[in-house]
Write a structure and sequence with these properties.
Layout (H helix, E strand, L loop, with lengths): L4 E3 L6 H11 L5 E6 L4 H11 L4 E8 L1 H8 L8 H19 L4 H16 L2 E7 L7 E5 L10 E5 L5 H4 L9 E5 L2 H17 L1 E3 L1 H9 L9 H18 L14 H17 L1 E4 L7 H16 L5 E5 L4 H10 L6 E5 L4 H4 L13 E4 L11 H11 L14 E5 L8 H8 L16 H18 L6 H19 E2 L3 H5 L2 H9 L6 E2 L3 E2 L6 H15 L25 H4 L5 H22 L1 H23 L3 E2 L6 H6 L4 H10 L4 H4 E2 L6 H22 L5 H14 L10 E4 L3 H14 L5 E4 L8 H8 L12 E4 L14 E4 L7 H8 L10 E6 L4 H7 L1 H16 L25 H18 L1 H8 L5 E5 L8 E6 L4 E6 L4 E4 L1 H8 L14 H21 L12 H16 L3 H16 L5 H12 L3 H6 L1 H14 L5 H4 L9 E8 L1
Parallel strand pairs: 2-3, 3-4, 9-13, 9-14, 10-11, 10-12, 12-13, 15-23, 16-23, 19-21, 19-22, 20-21, 22-23, 24-28
Antiparallel strand pairs: 1-7, 2-5, 4-8, 5-6, 6-7, 17-18, 25-26, 25-28, 26-27
Helix pairs in contact: 2-5, 4-8, 5-8, 9-34, 10-11, 16-17, 17-33, 20-22, 22-23, 23-27, 34-35, 38-39, 38-40, 39-42
């Protein structure tokens, strides 16, 4: 059956129909069209098929009022004709941007412009609300009842989709008619509309074309600057200014940090403010906070979280800047007060901005305080501020955000990001990005005792830095600032000195023959315990800490992973004992006696047939207070323990456990007896020698102040005793957690260079790591690390106490007592610290070598202060584009407005056959380097190296270079493929969903299958959404724990549905956040666009 209707199925498209008419209608001479919108990319394909006809007229209908109401209110005052042309211009540019990047497409568009110029094609725009018709007339020169003529009417416009050229074609429905009356009616309608319409002239099209890449050839310099503007333009154009309080220095580097940080805060809802210690992070954060208050309005509330010692500093700074009344202040261990509504704190929903100082303290997502902070950060904002944001903004301050593992960084990112709906450019799923890197890091950590893994760890952190850290971090070192001429001149003019941290000075001490033998024999006994990996071991077993491991199977059921628990505790104590040995002989002797006592106490429990295992009860501490076993059991029961759960008879343990306890006791008795004979202390002797010869040499230490750190309070007590009594010094101040708060004023008066008085009452301060954060000790420039902390980034914090704005010395001297060689071999102290520090340096850049003479510090490169790192290069590029903005605003805006797809061909004697392609969408931007055989992603700085050009360089004339088009299209293809893979959030292959999350989801599914309670089902759905989006760290763990209670027993779940409902309701209320629509601003994912491309001859 024949029909006049046709759709866009293959072989039956509008294009096929018009092509057929053109080839069979011998009198075809005129093509008249009325369309809703017109694509030049569709026209040129159609034109080839129309043949050599004399007249082509196309009428485009535009609903001016509707379009301008949505898109361009500023042009509403224009006349209808100007409005219509402006809209067509916009459509014309979008058509060229979205058209396939191919020479035949470009030639077709240029052909259309040529047809308009010569008059073969005429176009008009009909500016009306009512023109929605689409019809096409194929007519002879004179149309009458005796001549052929066709009209096609339907849904198709002149575009690839409408014509059916695009595969797969979109569905269209059209009808083709050749009855004279039908054709005549449509012809008359056409001419009526044509005469009402606005002509589009060749001059108009030529003007529009010049605003596209086909109408303007940029120079290589313009493309280079275009990329810089795309990267730094927002910062350059930000006219931020602030009235600084009296006494606050106006520092350019701090102002730039405020601009960069505020933009990150707005774009990503959070940032790391990670300038190295002593550059004024508190001041920068306060300025960002003040700017946020001014932008968001009078209802803004700020929460500042900090370690206890920093309270005065934050309150004073907020008062200085006039925003004290907008903030509440809380210590980092008291966040439960906000969640529980205690002590006059506002509800968590009332806060708009959260500032977390020393944020690395929240790096572990398994801690209670992390869970509390995440609940606060992820709660919605209830105040309707001027910024209209429902999501809190979060500033994380820390010079050392990466303390141990890549997980640390991920956990802190998840305080202001959700895993699945990540805002960071190119990272659709944070956990999905981090998961393989974390696995690789763990594998390397297991191999580090067999080979050097430093360079491989380096690569992991470089990847994290390039893909993530750079996008959400303000981070400069002193060298970065000194390497920028403007910054350097600015701080010099204000009398600020940045001291240079000299390479570490190693303090080595020699032991007598007897002491040396005792030391290494002790190390052997401490570390040579029998284990699966050391079956012949005959040293200490640390059996006192391994009781659960040796329970018989029928008693061990309640302790999951009992063997692992026991061996882990023993390993921790082994490390502790070796570190005590290397801290001071005095501290080690105390620990040795303690270990003997608690081992004998455990043996005594066996003798009394009452062995208590209650890790939370700290049984050994109670025994140390001379409490009898029955008293301890009574005490435990009063605390809620069930006696049967914590008290075991001797025969509940395997026989070898008691043997191990006796073995340990014998070794410990011998060691204690042996160390009672040790009266030497070569380490202190070395310290004493340097104290008189070097530490207070006026050439080294002009201020006469010294700072000493030790991890061991016992060591500090020992040093204080010897310094004051033996050496007779009355100027020694010892600070520990016990007395820090009452000594704050004394510390400031004697060691803070910013404090107005200059007291010399105390010249030596010896302290634990309680002073490693948030205090100024920079009247001193000499720091002694009496022992090395296990967490090596703590060293950075220590040095930061003396390396601060206001320091007067030119150099900082950094002395360390290194672990003995044998000790390093046994516990990997040095190597662990090196790997961790190297990872930190790779990710964030650091100022100087801190831990080892052999350590490679990225920026420093063996102390060459003139070597530029990636931050230096970015500051240099920012300065270049800022200079252009300030000195030639017209050229800046001309380059900024360069059309998409702008390109250049260069012949500079290098990079032959290569192309650089810059592709962008609203999801991510990417640079590609293409060759004839390969296409690879390169970072911004690599791309800039290729693109850099001088203003006078002219491009090579651009021709239909087949290789160039291949390169660009390969880049587009790679971008699309990678994005589709990265954005795939289906749960079939979700590396970001760990086993815990999957188990939690399974449990929630089971509940939904069993229950008929609609509210419970709804709450399960919400919690599932939170887990899949990666909003909360501990929610899946809580659900997993609940799941384990029921062991997927559906019968029991049904029976206890009410109890489960209460548990789920509790979790729902505890972790409630914005609903999904609020979390995801409605945003269409744009197609990838070519920003610029450049090929080399």
């Amino acid at each position: 059956m024949s029909t006049k209707f046709f759709n866009n199925r293959l072989g039956n498209t509008l294009f096929d129909k018009l092509k057929g008419i053109a080839s069979t209608m011998t009198t075809f001479d005129r093509f008249l069209a009325v369309v809703g919108f017109f694509r030049s990319s569709g026209y040129f394909k159609l034109r080839k098929e129309l043949g050599d006809i004399s007249e082509i007229k196309i009428l485009v209908g535009i609903n001016i009022d509707d379009i301008f109401r949505k898109h361009n209110k500023a042009l509403l005052m224009l006349s209808d004709e100007d409005k219509a042309k402006e809209i067509y211009n916009k459509d014309f540019k979008e058509d060229i941007i979205n058209a396939e990047y191919a020479p035949d497409v470009e030639n077709g568009i240029l052909q259309m412009c040529e047809d308009l110029a010569c008059g073969r094609l005429q176009m008009r725009i009909h500016a009306t609300k009512n023109l929605h018709a689409k019809f096409y007339l194929c007519l002879p020169q004179t149309h009458n009842e005796n001549s052929d003529g066709w009209v096609i009417m339907g849904s198709s416009n002149i575009s690839d989709s409408g014509l059916g050229i695009k595969q797969p074609p979109q569905y269209e429905l059209n009808v083709a008619m050749k009855d004279y009356d039908d054709v005549k009616y449509c012809s008359d309608e056409f001419w009526t509309l044509w005469n009402e319409a606005i002509p589009l002239t060749a001059e108009d099209i030529d003007k529009y074309k010049k605003k596209t890449y086909l109408g303007y050839q940029p120079t290589p310099y313009e493309l280079y600057i275009k990329v810089l503007i795309d990267t730094f333009g927002d910062q350059v154009e930000d006219d931020f200014s602030i009235q600084l309080p009296d006494g606050v220095k106006d520092l350019k580097y701090q102002k730039d940090a405020v601009i960069q940080g505020y933009q990150m805060l707005m774009q990503h809802n959070g940032l790391f403010l990670a300038d190295v210690v002593g550059l004024g992070k508190t001041m920068i954060a306060t300025m960002i906070a003040k700017r946020f208050v001014e932008s968001n309005g009078k209802n803004t509330n700020i929460l500042v979280i900090y370690p206890p010692a920093l309270e005065d500093n934050w309150k004073d700074t907020f008062k200085l800047f006039g925003i004290y009344k907008k903030a509440q202040f809380i210590t980092n261990g008291s966040l439960s007060k906000i969640l529980e509504g205690r002590d006059q704190y506002k509800d968590k929903e009332d806060f708009d901005l959260i500032i977390v100082d020393e944020a690395h303290g929240f790096r572990s997502d398994s801690s209670g305080k992390y869970d509390e902070l995440q609940k606060i950060c992820k709660s919605p904002c209830v105040n309707n501020g001027l910024l209209k944001s429902l999501q809190k903004k979060v500033m994380l301050l820390s010079a050392t955000p990466l303390n141990n593992r890549p997980d640390d960084l991920l956990n802190q990112l998840l305080l202001f990001q959700n895993s699945q709906s990540c805002t960071i450019d190119g990272i659709p799923n944070l956990k999905g990005f981090f998961a393989p890197l974390i696995d690789k890091y763990k594998k390397l950590m297991r191999e580090r005792d067999k080979r050097d893994v430093t360079s491989e760890v380096d690569k992991i952190y470089e990847q994290i830095r390039n893909k993530v850290i750079d996008k959400v971090t303000v981070r400069r070192t002193r060298n970065n600032i000194l390497n920028d001429p403007d910054y350097k001149a600015d701080i010099k003019s204000q009398g600020i000195i940045f001291p240079k941290i000299l390479p570490p000075n190693e303090l080595e001490y020699s032991m007598s023959r007897d002491t040396n033998d005792r030391f290494y024999e002790t190390l052997k006994q401490l570390t040579d315990g029998k284990s699966d990996t050391n079956p012949a071991g005959n040293g200490l077993n640390y059996a006192r800490y391994r009781a659960v491991e040796f329970l018989k199977p029928e008693y061990r059921k309640k302790y999951k992973n009992a063997a692992h628990i026991g061996q882990t505790l023993a390993g921790i104590y082994r490390v502790h004992m070796v570190k005590r040995l290397e801290s001071s002989f005095y501290a080690f002797k105390k620990s040795l006696r303690t270990l003997l006592n608690i081992t004998e106490d455990m043996i005594k429990m066996f003798e009394e047939n009452k062995v208590i295992i209650a890790p939370d009860l700290k049984v050994k501490d109670l025994q140390a207070k001379n409490m009898e076993l029955d008293e301890i059991i009574e005490y435990a029961v009063s605390k809620g323990y069930v006696a049967e759960d914590i008290v075991f008879t001797a025969d509940a343990f395997t026989p070898d456990f008691l043997e191990m306890l006796h073995h340990d006791r014998d070794i410990l008795k011998k060691l204690n007896a042996d160390w009672d004979k040790e009266n030497e202390d070569p380490k202190f002797d070395k310290f004493k020698e340097n104290l008189t010869r070097n530490f207070f040499d006026k050439k080294i230490n002009p201020s006469g102040k010294l700072v000493l750190f030790s991890e061991s309070v016992d060591t500090l007590n020992y040093l204080y005793e010897r310094l004051t009594k033996e050496l007779g010094r009355d100027d020694v101040l010892m600070v520990t957690a016990a007395n820090r708060n009452r000594l704050v004023q004394t510390i400031r008066e004697n060691f803070d260079a910013n404090y107005p008085s200059d007291s010399m009452r105390y010249n030596i301060i010896i302290t634990s790591d309680v002073l490693a954060e948030g205090v100024n000790l920079h009247r001193s420039n000499v720091i002694v690390n009496y022992d090395s902390p296990w967490n090596a980034t703590r060293l950075m914090q220590r040095i930061g106490r003396v390396n601060r704005i206001g320091s007067l010395a030119q150099y900082i001297y950094n002395y360390l007592f290194y672990p003995s060689r044998q000790g390093d071999k046994e516990i990997q102290l040095y190597k662990n610290a090196l790997v961790k520090l190297q990872g930190f340096h790779s990710a964030f850049g650091e100022d100087a070598q801190i831990y080892s003479k052999e350590e490679i510090v990225k920026e420093f490169q063996m102390f060459d202060n003139n070597v530029k790192d990636y931050i230096d290069k970015k500051i240099e590029l920012l300065r270049e584009v800022r200079d252009l903005y300030n000195n030639d605003r017209e050229l800046y805006h001309k380059i900024k407005a360069l059309p998409m797809k702008s390109r250049a061909m260069r012949d500079i004697g290098k990079h032959s056959g290569k192309s650089v392609v810059f592709v962008s969408s609203n999801i991510k931007t990417e640079f590609y380097l293409a060759t004839s055989t390969n296409i690879e992603t390169i970072d911004f700085l690599e791309a800039v190296e290729y693109l850099k050009a001088e203003p006078e360089e002219q491009p090579v004339p651009f021709s239909d270079d087949e290789q160039h088009y291949k390169h660009v299209n390969k880049a587009l293809e790679k971008y699309s493929t990678e994005y589709v893979e990265a954005a795939d959030t289906s749960s079939i292959n979700r590396p970001d969903l760990d086993k815990t999350s999957l188990e939690a989801n399974k449990f929630l599914r089971t509940i939904k299958q069993i229950t008929t309670d609609s509210e419970l089902v709804s709450q399960c759905n919400v919690l599932t959404g939170y887990i899949n989006e990666g909003i909360y760290a501990q929610l899946p763990r809580r659900l997993k724990k609940l799941s384990r209670e029921y062991k997927n027993d559906q019968k029991r779940i049904r029976e206890e549905e009410y109890k489960i409902k209460e548990e789920i309701k509790g979790l729902f209320e505890e972790y409630q956040t914005m609903d999904k629509e609020q979390r995801h601003d409605a945003q269409d994912i744009s197609n990838p666009q070519i920003v610029i491309s450049e090929s080399f001859k």
